[in-house]
């Protein structure tokens, strides 16, 4: 590209000099004070500077990615397209670590000094590298973004840069891979079951419970058993928080507790008095058989299997995965899936879930990066509107994943090469986002009704609630105390589980949990959070 930009300038100058010389006859004296160098308005093109980047990332749990090598053909093709665009030879290699072991293995890598040029994480403050900023391992990126990241700056919302997952003390250390769409919350329902029961789409709490009761007692899958449930829950409550959301609460998002102002005190939702009622609601679902009894140990694959086995009426998931729920995947081959707007409140508004950070992953450059400006250029290219880049991230590699004739692309998502590998080029190695919900991709796939996608995005835009603590750093007093969080091994999750299965009284159990949480560091965390909130809350 540089050579292409240089040539027109050079040709213009040459032509101007030629015209000047032609205009001057033999009898016309040429000015002797014009230096020969005055005609050189462009420097000679610089020699190519090769750059190689090794990106450490998790494998997303994808089958293809688990076996992908550093020089995988998709990484190579992506690097080729960028090299062509920037006019400089660039090699981009991904080293994948299993998602389940990622934090542990990255911790070991950083402790041993085996640090790559680029690391992906959920935050610059992740426990695997929690002191990397202070130790000068991560590079500040403000100046590089200003100089080489015009597309990044145009596409990433201003409020996102202030998030603690990206910045500290005014310096940016991470560049986000944005969720696409930005808040992909989805609540799915078996519309064919609604139709079979002659019921309308549930909106209020009472209507949800009435629907769940019918599901429990009607044998909708026709196997002669009442083995269907209204709502399926995963172990550790992954994709299972809708009924917390219905109460206007969230235990945590993006690895951090969610905090709200309650009567002038900024407190985490896990100790909000309304959380006691939400826990009681989940216990009621459990007691009445409206949810799966084996929820404690349900793995992701078990959760999905129950849905495919025609045993689940509603479930929460990621809108980007709508193409997982096609009729052919279900036991009865007749499932019809629809989306719900959330839980209708007394004021007429719906609550579907919280607004998240919109960040799927964070790209971080380390001190070992030899050409950091080139990697920022690469990320900026992925955020640009470059047509070749868009085609690659949508359809993969020409003559492997798709063919093109007379400007028309033919892409078969069901072909083995795409069925097995499309997640690699559509989302996993795409630093700017995800093309699974791209209108062109959805249309060509033909697996999901584009209107259903449009409906889901509309629900996200209207029915998500704000999280005032989104940009708040984790209080120091609980930063290294996972038991005070909301995930595996936390006091909260243990209390919730014990209440649901009837091991402890809901009222006493919740009150004891709150007291214990505060005693172990929560009181100090509340003080830190309120100090932050007083300085940062919107007026």
Task: Describe the structure in your own words.
The chain has 539 residues and is of the alpha+beta class. Strand 9 (252-253) and strand 10 form a beta hairpin. Helix 19 (491-500) runs antiparallel to helix 20 (506-536). It is globular and about 75 Å long.
User: Would you count the extended β strands for me?
Assistant: 21
Q: Unreliable runs, pLDDT <50, ≥5 residues?
A: 1-42
Specify the helix fraction band: 40-55%
The description of the largest β-sheet is: 5 strands, mixed
Shape: globular
End-to-end distance: 49 Å
Give the rounded overall mean pLDDT.
91
What count of helical segments does DSSP give? 20
Strand proportion, as a percent range, falls in 15-25%
Major sheet strand order: 2-1-3-18-6
Radius of gyration: 28 Å
Structural class: alpha+beta
Summarize it.
The protein has 539 residues and is of the alpha+beta class.
Could you name the key traits of this structure?
five-stranded mixed beta sheet; 15% strand; four-stranded mixed beta sheet; alpha+beta; 20 helices; 21 strands; 539 residues
SSE layout:
Elements: H1 2-23, E1 51-58, H2 63-67, H3 73-86, E2 90-97, H4 102-112, E3 118-121, H5 142-148, H6 150-155, H7 158-161, E4 167-168, E5 171-172, E6 175-178, E7 185-190, H8 191-197, H9 205-218, E8 229-231, H10 242-245, E9 252-253, E10 256-257, E11 259-262, E12 265-268, H11 273-287, H12 300-308, E13 312-318, E14 337-339, E15 343-344, E16 350-351, E17 353-354, E18 359-365, H13 372-382, H14 387-395, E19 402-405, E20 408-411, H15 416-428, H16 439-445, H17 450-463, E21 464-465, H18 476-479, H19 491-500, H20 506-536
Parallel strand pairs: 1-2, 1-3, 8-13, 17-21
Antiparallel strand pairs: 3-18, 4-5, 6-18, 7-13, 7-14, 9-10, 11-12, 15-16, 19-20
């Amino acid at each position: 590209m540089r050579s292409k930009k240089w040539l027109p300038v050079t040709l213009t100058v040459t032509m101007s000099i030629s015209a000047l010389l032609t205009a001057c006859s033999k009898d016309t004296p040429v000015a002797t004070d014009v230096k020969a160098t005055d005609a050189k308005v462009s420097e000679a093109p610089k020699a190519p500077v090769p750059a190689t980047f090794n990106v450490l990332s998790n494998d997303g749990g994808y089958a293809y990615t688990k076996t992908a090598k550093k020089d995988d053909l998709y990484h190579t093709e992506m690097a080729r397209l960028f090299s062509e665009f920037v006019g400089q030879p660039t090699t981009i290699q991904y080293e994948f670590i299993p998602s389940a072991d990622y934090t542990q293995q990255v911790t070991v890598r950083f402790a041993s000094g085996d640090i790559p040029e680029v690391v992906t994480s959920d935050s610059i403050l992740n426990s695997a590298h929690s002191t990397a900023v202070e130790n000068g391992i991560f590079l500040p990126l403000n100046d590089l973004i200003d100089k080489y990241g015009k597309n990044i700056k145009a596409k990433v919302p201003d409020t996102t840069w202030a998030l603690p997952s990206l910045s500290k003390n005014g310096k940016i250390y991470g560049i986000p891979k944005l969720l696409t769409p930005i808040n992909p919350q989805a609540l799915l329902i078996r519309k064919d079951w609604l139709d079979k029961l002659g019921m309308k789409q549930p909106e209020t709490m009472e209507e949800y419970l009435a629907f769940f009761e019918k599901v429990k007692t009607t044998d909708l899958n026709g196997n002669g058993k009442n083995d269907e449930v209204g709502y399926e829950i995963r172990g550790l409550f992954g994709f299972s928080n809708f009924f917390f959301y219905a109460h206007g609460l969230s235990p945590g998002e993006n690895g951090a507790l969610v905090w709200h102002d309650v009567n002038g005190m900024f407190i985490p939702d896990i100790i909000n008095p309304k959380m006691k009622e939400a826990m009681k609601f989940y216990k009621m679902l459990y007691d009445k058989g409206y949810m799966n009894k084996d929820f404690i140990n349900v793995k992701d694959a078990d959760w999905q299997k129950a849905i495919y086995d025609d045993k689940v009426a509603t479930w929460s998931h990621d809108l980007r995965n709508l193409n997982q729920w096609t009729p052919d995947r279900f036991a009865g081959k007749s499932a019809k899936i629809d989306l719900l707007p959330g839980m209708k409140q007394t004021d007429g508004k719906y609550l579907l879930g919280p607004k998240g950070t919109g960040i799927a992953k964070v790209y971080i450059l380390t001190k070992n990066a030899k050409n950091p400006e080139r990697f920022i250029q690469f990320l900026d290219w992925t955020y640009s509107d470059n047509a070749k880049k868009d085609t690659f991230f949508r359809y993969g590699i020409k003559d492997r994943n798709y063919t093109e004739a007379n400007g028309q692309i033919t892409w078969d998502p069901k072909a083995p090469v795409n069925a097995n590998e499309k997640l690699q080029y559509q989302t996993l190695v795409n630093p700017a986002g995800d093309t699974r919900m791209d209108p062109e991709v959805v249309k060509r796939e033909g697996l999901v009704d584009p209107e259903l996608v449009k409906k889901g995005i509309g629900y996200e835009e209207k029915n998500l609630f704000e999280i005032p603590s989104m940009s708040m750093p984790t209080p120091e007093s609980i930063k290294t105390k996972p038991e005070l969080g909301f995930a595996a091994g936390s006091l909260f999750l243990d209390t919730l589980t014990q209440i649901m299965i009837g091991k402890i009284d809901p009222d006493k159990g919740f009150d004891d949990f709150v007291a214990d949480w505060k005693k172990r560091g929560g009181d100090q965390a509340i003080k830190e959070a309120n100090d932050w909130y007083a300085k940062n809350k919107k007026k």
